[in-house]
Amino acid sequence: MPSEKRDSSESDRTRQVVNHIRALLEKGALRPGDRIPPERELARELGISRASLRTGIGYLVAMGVMKVRHGVGTFIEDGPAEFNKSSLGLMGALHGFQFWQMFEARLIIEGSLAALAAERGKDEHHVALAEQVAEMFSIANNPEDFLKHDVIFHRIIAQASGNPILAALIETINSAMYEKRRKTVKRATYLRHMAEMHREIFRAIRARDAAEARKQMEEHLRVAEDAQKAEPRRPLPPGSFQQDGEKKLAAAHSD
Amino acid sequence: MPSEKRDSSESDRTRQVVNHIRALLEKGALRPGDRIPPERELARELGISRASLRTGIGYLVAMGVMKVRHGVGTFIEDGPAEFNKSSLGLMGALHGFQFWQMFEARLIIEGSLAALAAERGKDEHHVALAEQVAEMFSIANNPEDFLKHDVIFHRIIAQASGNPILAALIETINSAMYEKRRKTVKRATYLRHMAEMHREIFRAIRARDAAEARKQMEEHLRVAEDAQKAEPRRPLPPGSFQQDGEKKLAAAHSD
DNA sequence: TGTATTCTAGTGGTCAGACCATAGAAAGCT
DNA sequence: AGCTTTCTATGGTCTGACCACTAGAATACA
Fold it and tell me: Which of A34, A58, A76 finishes a domain?
């Protein structure tokens, strides 16, 4: 008999819970924002202990599919698609990610996202982008607020690209970088320049000029990276990535 | 006082466990493949119940940082960096990912990966790639084995790119597609053509021709996608993605 | 002596039930 | 009405017992 593919990382009960939820999601019986039944009740329905149910829920929470609110209930995540915020940080700790690599990944993905958005963006996206750009200009002296609109601007582009998978990936990366960006932008004196760059990106997207959109986005991100680099080098805060770390090729051949 | 950023998805005990492991990873006291102490023992050390410890471990397992082997022990994951295999599938069920979107993401990321590999690849990578290509030619009539070398080939390129973050992302995507590819390749009669395409990619990388490497890779993936599409359309197997699904813009504006 | 079988210690998986902590709703007070 | 207190529902944690799996040791067999 051909043995079934088993992801040995999940035990039977956990798998049972995950499949149950997945089935409900695929059937459309469960949608973002919905609440699932109380643990005691759902455990009884599934015929498993509450502890096992909680293991399965924890698994789904860790993957960014569900969210638990103590004293309130357990819900299907309803924000933009992304992997769990801390996942990249943990993987960084394990595999020695470095910051320039995050910027590189961001440059590649967001560049393509901008190009796709130029090709596929609808009017509603153009409107939303224009609004964010306008906001950036109007409050160009409040770094905190500025960053907020910056994040939304990029998120709309991801949305406009029509590829939610790439959107989820970049959302994960940006989440991991958010704290650092927040500190950087705080002392930024170039917010107006930033706003102008965003406007250029927007114009290219609205003009459906994919190549230009990519170019502007890449330039924008390079400037952002340089600004980051210019930051005073403080000792590594807890949870940051390593400064260096060569990896061996060995693992690549694992069967 | 500025309130601390709290990821409300993790309770205190879970956080405690995750931070403990993270700290050990960052300190280098824990490396890929290492085993952590037995649950009963570690729980006592941390001063928490075994149940809580297990919650934390489950969290780390779900994020692909650890792996549990029943009856043996709990280990730090030692394979290539990637998010949990089922994460993309779950997110797909939740956000309606489609297959063409996976191919598109793959095209973009692997194209860039090939270009980076051309720029940064070392001799050892060239050697390893050549070996895989040779294997592909030699066993071009055994689809199962062929796919194995195909996977390794792409993994080496990711490694050679020098960006483990992008490598982890593509590894996650490829994992999610593996089962489907396995079925496709089974009836493939064009394996020799595939091998030739891989050889072209390899040559471009060895010649350090980034543009050509990207071009060849993209062409290769387009052919692979067409082969996939030519597959007989069977009813959606459990765990697959939806056929269609427009998303609203609303979520993008969430604060 | 070498091999197959059985046993056993170690370790993760599940269960049951109790009690704690939190958030929101309801009731009571002024 | 508006504030405070209490109650209720729901998730969080603990304890300790028992089940299930794995690997290696001990044993039996040839």
Answer: A76
Does residue A146 contact residue A140 with C-beta atoms inside 8 Å? yes
Q: Is residue A102 part of a domain?
A: yes
**Between A and B, how many residue pairs show a Cβ–Cβ distance under 8 A?**
210
Closest to A100 measured CA to CA, from A228, A216, A188: A228
Give A181: exposed, middle or buried? Use CB within 10 Å, 0-12, 13-18, 19+: middle
Report the alpha-carbon distance of residue A230 to residue A249 in Å, rounded. Answer: 33
B196 shares a domain with B148: yes
Degrees to nearest 5, angle at CA A94 with A91 and A100: 65
Pair (A120, A220) in one structural domain: yes
Taking only the tens place, the pLDDT of each residue in B47-60 is 999 999 999 999 99
* Mean pLDDT of chain B, nearest integer: 86
* Confidence label for A250 from pLDDT (cuts 50, 70 and 90): very low
Of A93, A102, A109, the CB nearest to B22: A93
Question: B67, B82, B94: which to substitute to probe chain A, counting the most A Cβ within 10 Å?
Answer: B94
Say if the Cβ atoms of A109 and B109 lie within 8 Å. yes
Among A152, A163, A252, the residue with its CB nearest the CB of B159 is A252
pLDDT digits (tens, 9 = 90+) for B114-136: 999 999 999 999 999 999 999 99
How do beta strands B66-69 and B73-76 pair? antiparallel
Where does the pLDDT of residue A186 fall: very low under 50, low under 70, confident under 90, or very high at 90 and above?
Answer: low
- The residue range of the domain holding B39 is 12-76
Query: Is the residue at A28 inside a domain?
Result: yes
Strand partners, A204: none
Structural domain count of chain A: 2
Q: Would residue A174 count as lying in a domain?
A: yes
Question: Stated in angstroms, how far is B69 CA from D15 C1'?
Answer: 25
Closest CB from A70, A102, A128 relative to B165: A102
Task: Among A229-233, B81-85, B245-249, name the one with the lowest average pLDDT.
Answer: B245-249
Same domain, A71 and A36: yes
Say yes or no for a CB contact (<8 Å) between A242 and B26: yes
Are A9 and B84 an interchain contact pair (Cβ–Cβ within 8 Å)? yes
- B 17-36, residues with C-beta < 7 Å of strand C: 36
Same domain for A56 and A162? no
What is the enclosing helix (H) or strand (E) of A96? none
Gap from A184 CA to chain B (nearest CA, Å): 17
Contact B22 A239 (CB under 8 A): yes
pLDDT of residue A45: 96
Q: Domain with A128 in it: what CATH number?
A: 1.20.120.530
Do A118 and A207 have their domain in common? Answer: yes
Report pLDDT digits (tens) over A155-169: 999 999 999 999 999
A164 and A134 in a single domain? The answer is yes
Q: Report pLDDT digits (tens) over B190-216.
A: 788 899 999 999 999 999 999 999 999
Does residue A65 contact residue A21 with C-beta atoms inside 8 Å?
yes
Would the pLDDT of B239 be above 80? no
Overall average pLDDT of the B80-103 stretch: 91
- Say whether the CB atom of A54 is under 7 angstroms from strand D: yes
